[in-house]
C-alpha cells in the first residue's frame, strides 16, 4: 500500500492492491478540487444549458440564449458572468451585441459526451 498517504497507512484494508489503484485513480487532490468546482458550477440546470447550447452553435447573442433556454436576459447574463469568471466561456463584442463561446477544453470534451448522450 505504498500509495496510501501516511495519515491513513496504519488502517487495515481488505484488498491493499485495490486501495492503491483507487488512490492512483483519484490522483492529485488539487485536480479533484478543480473538477469539483467545475461540477458545482455546472450543477445548476440553467448554467449547464448555456454551455450545452454554445457548444453546438456559433457564438449566439445573450437574447438568443435567453430564448433558447427560457431564461430572461438578466439571468442569462448573470450565469454567463459566472461561467466567464471560471474560464468556461469567452465573450466577444460585436458593436452592442455580446456573443459567447466555450473555451475550456476540458468542459468542451465533457459537453461533447453530454451531446452524444442526448442524441
UniProtKB/TrEMBL annotation:
Domain HTH arsR-type: residue ranges: 27-119
A Pfam family of this chain: HTH_5
Domain of life (superkingdom): Bacteria
Keywords: DNA-binding, Transcription, Transcription regulation
Stored InterPro entries: ArsR-like_HTH, HTH_ArsR_DNA-bd_dom, Metal_resp_trans_reg, WH-like_DNA-bd_sf, WH_DNA-bd_sf
Coiled-coil segments: none
SMART domains linked: HTH_ARSR
PANTHER family: ARSENICAL RESISTANCE OPERON REPRESSOR ARSR-RELATED, HTH-TYPE TRANSCRIPTIONAL REPRESSOR CZRA
Name of protein: Helix-turn-helix transcriptional regulator
Organism: Streptomyces thermoviolaceus subsp. thermoviolaceus
